[in-house]
Amino acid sequence: MRRSLRAASLALMLSLAGAWGAPAAAAGAGKAPADLLAQGRALYLQGQRADGSPLVATRAGGLEVAGAGAACVNCHRRSGMGGAEGRSYIPPITADALFTAMPVGRGASAIGDGRPAYGEASLAHALRDGVDASGRPLDFLMPRYRLRDQEVRALQAYLRTLPQKPVAEGDPVHFATVVAPGVAPERSEAMLGVLQACFDEHNAGPKAEQGRHKLAPGMQQREGRKWQLHVWKLEGPQENWGAQLARRASEQPVFALVGGVGGAQWSPVHGFCEAAGVPCLFPHLEAAPDAPAGFYPLYLGQGAVLEAGLVARHVARQPRAAARVIQVLRAQDASAEAAAAALRQSLAEQGVASSDLRIAPSAALTPELLSQAQAQDTLVLWLRPEDLERLPSVAPAAAQVFVSATLAERDELPLPPAWKARTLMAYPFELPQQRGRRTAAMRQWLEERGLALADERVQGDAWVACKALRTAMLEAEDHLGRDYFIERVETNLERTTATGLYPRLALGIGQRFASKSGYLVRFEDGKGMVAVGERVAP
């Protein structure tokens, strides 16, 4: 059911994607036929020819690459804005970079010799022979492609659409944030308070110059375009979310979705972002969506799904004689179900048996429900605070117990003492005693804006999303396209000190989860939370 629901949602989104992306593509495409643009796009992004065969090229040293390995996107990125490969600079190949003359003193070359504008013949020479429009050899990183004349024309037509700019110069930039059904009002309000303060801060303009931060005479601070935040509250079952998102986007197109809050049911939002080509930046979720990886949705972490990996890694390293893993969860708790499914799969791959014990939504948690556990078993409790508090005061029959930090919702574990002594908590955040400096900056920011610390995890994720948004938008201001915005987030995230509650954030090309590691922790009298071993990436 879950798989068919996702397929239906993605099919709906794909049917809407053409209308959403058409204005940006058409603006730069001129009169190029749609089939020619499609051929160029497939060559650029996938390294695939019109007949389905792979594009073939030769790199320095005679190494042959084909298909996806030969695609232009690998170096020049989806935006066409290029980047860096080691010490080599990869220049932009957008329309304004290629198809206008480059005067002396400008351009990708360090010596800035300039060059004439590219045309079809000089572009073909560059692609096939590695020679630029002025006759100079291109960098050794540039492959030599085996391209037909029609394919050169198709690539030229597609490159003329780059960079795609969905926001007209000078217009305000519209963003939205999504609130899923079932989210407690205090959680959504905590997230919205941070985002609105972030937008207000941006719209207030640059801070006044003071002391050493004063600019030299004749210089002035640049004021970016205004931002407007829209709140999209979804309603009803998730099979209806796609239509709601499409309607909202039709009524008010947005540049990106920022922040957001939900549980584990997020796949329709993920599908919308990917199909419509809209960045989806760092929503606060309890569990990563069960959806195919994409380019546009970005997440801070996998939540309870990463915790399942931490538990599986630990269990697999223990003696396995007669070992069983029993997962305990409330039926109809989507986040617990997602975590249990991830752990079940990981354990099965390592030959460890597991079983699930589901408690009906209205059933009381009694000792009899847990009586099937034996001394050599492991219990994994995908339970929330109200259930953890109701565990029987007698010690558990199982020798080892695991709980979820995400579902427990706070660091202070609400367990009876007899249980706490045998319990490890999967913890996908930095240890509290080590993250003080970073959370202190966030707390100060909240205080200066009159915001109480109501939900540190939700507000921390929104704060990271705010910082990432502001940095990427500042850098992308002159080339404000969605693809370039995503690329700037990828590049900048590893450099930021605004990591919220996480130990480290980084997004390599193709990576969509910024935090990839966590701890197992235990609780000691007088010491509180203590790590069991090092931080690991399961």
UniProtKB/TrEMBL annotation:
<feature type="domain" description="Cytochrome c">
    <location>
        <begin position="47"/>
        <end position="163"/>
    </location>
</feature>
<keyword id="KW-0732">Signal</keyword>
<dbReference type="Pfam" id="PF00034">
    <property type="entry name" value="Cytochrom_C"/>
</dbReference>
<protein>
    <submittedName>
        <fullName>C-type cytochrome</fullName>
    </submittedName>
</protein>
<dbReference type="InterPro" id="IPR028082">
    <property type="entry name" value="Peripla_BP_I"/>
</dbReference>
<feature type="signal peptide">
    <location>
        <begin position="1"/>
        <end position="24"/>
    </location>
</feature>
<dbReference type="InterPro" id="IPR009056">
    <property type="entry name" value="Cyt_c-like_dom"/>
</dbReference>
<dbReference type="InterPro" id="IPR036909">
    <property type="entry name" value="Cyt_c-like_dom_sf"/>
</dbReference>
<keyword id="KW-0349">Heme</keyword>
<keyword id="KW-0479">Metal-binding</keyword>
<keyword id="KW-0408">Iron</keyword>
